[in-house]
Amino acid sequence: MNKFYRGQFVTYNEHSGYVNFISEEYITICVKEYTKPPQEAQFSRCPVRQVCLCVYSRYWDNVIPTPQEVINTFSTENAEIVENIK
To answer: Cβ distance 4 to 62 under 8 Å?
Structure first.
């Protein structure tokens, strides 16, 4: 059918993200996710809000598969807890 699969990391017109939806007519590429505030997430089906691009099949040649980016973040938020365990 096409060359994409859900969750595949891609770049389209300088926007990087992952394929979120695939049909014969278009794909969507999720470029950003936000966690909803607790008051809103409590009554939602999904706890995140997504920003997606819709790319029609005639532009699929411009969608470039990219390797998955690993983002390692370091937080000292719980450093006291770790030190107190010693």
So the answer is: no
Q: How far is CA 15 from CA 22, 32, 40, 47, 51, in A?
A: 18, 10, 28, 23, 11
Is-contact 6 23, C-beta < 8 A?
no
> Do 54 and 31 contact (CB within 8 A), yes or no?
no
Q: Which residues pair with 54 in a beta bridge?
A: 28
Cα gap 46→29, rounded to integer Å:
18
Q: What is the pTM of this model?
A: 0.71
* Closest by CA position to 63, among listed 19, 24, 21: 19
Give Cα 77 distance to the centre of its chain.
25
Average pLDDT (24-53) is: 90
